[in-house]
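USER: For my understanding, would you kindly supply a protein sequence with its structure tokens?

ASSISTANT:
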Amino acid sequence: MSAVTSIDISQQTIRELANSPPTIPEPASPRFIIAPSNQVFGIARMFELQGQDARPNLHVVRSVKEILAILGIRNTRFEPIQTE
């Protein structure tokens, strides 16, 4: 959601989505929502808190830098890959 600046969704819909089973039910695998705007961050945090039992490893952050910190990654090096 890093490019989303606003979202129109009810609190009830957030609760229903958060209480539904995860699409990928692997609770040990970390999941991240990047939400730099205040509105989207707040909605994503509602989702995170409401669904924490079903998604215990979901993190709402504002940047990739925060993800790297949570994962304990200090140095990154990205290189292009060849695709055909």
User: Anything to note?
Assistant: The first strand starts at residue 31 and ends at 34. The chain has three helices and two strands. The CA atoms of residues 64 and 80 lie 18 Å apart. The mean pLDDT is 91.
